[in-house]
What does this fold into?
Amino acid sequence: MKLTVFDLDGTLLNTLQDLTDSVNFAMDELGLNRYTCDQVRMMIGNGVAKLMERAVTQNRIELKDKALILQRSFYSQHNGDNTYPYYGICDMLCRLKQGGCVVAVHTNKDEGAARSLCSNHFNGLIDYVCGTTSDSLTKPNPAKVQQLMTGLGVGVNDVVYCGDSDVDIATAKNLGVKCISVTWGYRDGKFLQDCGATLLADSPQQIVEFVLKM
It folds into this structure.
């Protein structure tokens, strides 16, 4: 059995516009400066709580909890407005499933939102979704994937972790598994290589080829 674990935002789904809109809703409500998509892009990766902490900046850090509540409320209602799978993703997932792979999502996004998005965009193609819950365990903590691996009886040699960020590289390292860093997401290839990426994928097809040859 092979297990392929994917990050969600910037790897399977382009969620940037909806995340930016939710951040700016909170900023507007609190009378703070708005952000562009490119600015929000660089704040994503460590979960929504960290995103909103970065958004309010250290000068107004006392507003981070209010900002988080506002962002979560808006995003829960609008997380599908402008979100879509990257080109070739659905075909990639189909081919991995046809090849006998178990497919999981491991994200720092709130688990409820992650499950909803996976159901809406990848119905039947994702076997497991691990997101942020009340336990507040976020990547690069590998505990949730380790638990999944144990339950499936899968060893580290049969797992590939795919993501678009330095956080995903660190998570794969903490798991002791192979990592594929994708170049179409929220970080570019040079940034990923500087963070230790050793295997880059420029297309979903390359992920299929690598995984099925394992």
